[in-house]
Amino acid sequence: MSGLCKPCHSTCDSCDGPTEKACLSCASPLILQGTKCVGKCDKGYYSGRESQLCEPCLHTCSRCLSKTNCTESTKEPVSGAT
């Protein structure tokens, strides 16, 4: 091991490795989803305004504006149900 630090991926502000999937924080205006910096959260996640993180929606939501504001449900209506 050389003991030299490698630079973070260009999308990362801080990281624990050189790849785009090793980010700990993101360069503005990107937001962190897991360990990757993205411009927009994936389906099933929402952007936490204060934390700059993509947070998961409730398991019953495929899209949401916040943890408790579901805009699209994951459950499909059962055919023939009343």
TrEMBL record:
Organism name: Acanthoscelides obtectus
Q: Which InterPro entries match?
A: Furin_repeat, Growth_fac_rcpt_cys_sf
Q: What is this protein called?
A: TNFR-Cys domain-containing protein
